[in-house]
Structures are given as C-alpha cells and as structure tokens.
Amino acid sequence: xxxxxxxxxxxxxxxxxxxxxxxxxxxxxxxxxxxxxxxxxxxxxxxxxxxxxxxxxxxxxxxxxxxxxxxxxxxxxxxxxxxxxxxxxxxxxxxxxxxxxxxxxxxxxxxxxxxxxxxxxxxxxxxxxxxxxxxxxxxxxxxxxxxxxxxxxxxxxxxxxxxxxxxxxxxxxxxxxxxxxxxxxxxxxxxxxxxxxxxxxxxxxxxxxxxxxxxxxxxxxxxxxxxxxxxxxxxxxxxxxxxxxxxxxxxxxxxxxxxxxxxxxxxxxxxxxxxxxxxxxxxxxxxxxxxxxxxxxxxxxxxxxxxxxxxxxxxxxxxxxxxxxxxxxxxxxxxxxxxxxxxxxxxxxxxxxxxxxxxxxxxxxxxxxxxxxxxxxxxxxxxxxxxxxxxxxxxxxx
Length: 398
Known about the structure:
single chain, 398 residues, alpha/beta, D-Maltodextrin-Binding Protein, domain 2, five-stranded mixed beta sheet, globular
C-alpha cells in the first residue's frame, strides 16, 4: 500500500503470498524488533562516488523535473556529487521488497510495512549514520525505531512521515467526532457512507480502536496481535464492512466522494483534507482521542549495492533541509529534518503537518511490519504475521 504525492493519483493494496519475515530471522533476547537479522556490516568510511545510483522510490520522492520543471531535486544532486540518478518508481511495498531482492538497486524509500522484511531477509544493510551528516538534524523521535532499527543497529535514514486522520463532512456528521467510534459502530447512522483505507495494514486501525474499547484483550501495540487479538480486530472489520460505502486507495477519488457526499466519515490524510477543503468541500479532519496509525518512511541501502558511496550521498542529500522541505511539500507529509521547516515555501506548512509537535506524534502508531516475533516485547507469544493479515483482508472485504 502506498500514498502518492499531492499531484499524483493511484495507490495499490499489497498482496503478499509469503510470510512477513524470511526464515533467516531468529528470535532474539534483545530489544528492537525481536529477531536477529543476518550479520552484515555497515560501511566504515565514505569513498569516491561511483558515478551513478539506482533507486527504488515512491512517486514524488525522487523528482527530476520531467513532470514539472519546478519540481527537481535530482539534477542539483547530480551536479553536486557526480552521481547520476536512475529511479524505479514502485507502486506497493511488496513491489519494493521484490525489486530489492534482485540486487539491481542501491537504495529504497521503504515504509514500515516493508522495512523489517528487508532487514530480516538480508536485503538491507545496516547504515553508518556517521556518514550521513544531515542525520544529526533528523527529529530524534524518528531515529532508532522499531521499523528502522533492530537491536540498537540503524538500518536507514528517516525521510518523511504522516498520520492517518479521521475526516468528516461538517454538514452531515453531528456531533463533530473526536473518536473512531462512529467509524466502527455497528448501528452507525452513516451506513453506506463510511469509508476506510483499502489495505491489510488497516487491520491495525481496528486493533487501535480495540485497545481503548476492549482493554481485556490486552493489546499493547496494534501491529503485535496474537491470534485472539487478531480475530477480534478482524471481527470488528467484518462488522464495519456492512456500513462501508467504499474502500479507497486513490486519494483523488476520496476527495471526490467527500465532495459529492457519497462518503461522509472515514480515514484520510492531511493532504487529502487540505485538497478537499481547497475544492470547497465542507470537511474537517482530526486526530481522534484514541490516537491513530501512520507512516514513517526510511531510506535503506541494499546489502548488494553496486554504488554504495553514491547511495550514502543520496541519503544525505534527500534529508538535507532544502531537499527534504521540497519533497515534503510536494508529497504532502511532515519532513524528517527539523531544519527543513525553515525552507518550506509555505511558512505554515510544518505547523499544518505538526512537524515539530512531539505530543502529537506520541499519539501515532507508525506502520510496522507484523511478524511472528511480537514487536510489543512479548517473548512467550507468537503474533500473527503480515501474510495472514493479507489473507484476512481479502475475506473482510468479501
């Protein structure tokens, strides 16, 4: 699954046939993700650039001006470093994982539903953050997290992040919601006009709701669900299905649905709410009191990178204040570099996207690959892996 930039269109749901972790992942007594990845070494020193770098990226993350001459942070990088950029735009996390296995690419902008798979399979190498000078200015809350590190070892450089919000039509939904409750209510007065994100990772949204409404389940992390907890989340989503008008994956279609009134309540992103409001739709979006799920993307280096020096230079460039600001504004997300807020064209951009609001992000559970080794720290329990989430999602939608 994936978000698209503010000017692009389609998103695709992930369809996985394999388990979320490869067989190389073994239980670990240490912290982090709860497994020991293959023994790989990070680069110790930065050498001369190899003259090129091959990237896998989400649309909007490596723009070279071909779509809009004003949107270009690739050519300045090439001029500065001598590393010519070749980018493969991927539509899903599953596609990124498969492309990384070929060994033909040097770096990837992985979301949290893919990053642990890349680490566990040995396709992503540890990253020496000392070789990325701009890393020091990345928000501390994004560093060394469950989706971009294992057992105290960094596996990437944070890029951008966002929250999944609750959007509603102000003229149709009353009272104004401050909770996910009306989205999941069996007797919803908005039957047929509720919308939800079309992806297996949406099961975590149901789990998050159950954390507050059914505390007896003992859910501590919406991405770490044992069989009982998982079954409860799936049951809630099956119940919700009766009220769903449509599941969305193309954000422009969600804008259209809220403008027409076909959808009046459901999951959204800040950029969608901004777009809908700009097109005069009477909507608002909130971070509910229970919190929400969200994403934090990470640039990761391939363990088979043929151009690792240029890959490191790219990572440093893309999280530099100027470039990170450009990407964040174009894409519609908070920048990872705290200094990027001084370089956005819209001086209120970082306030709109809560870039420096630590309290806001403490309420957001960033996408993390569900794996058998429970990422909530439980040692004596097996959690449901992502492949099972994919299978369940197909059944939920019917």
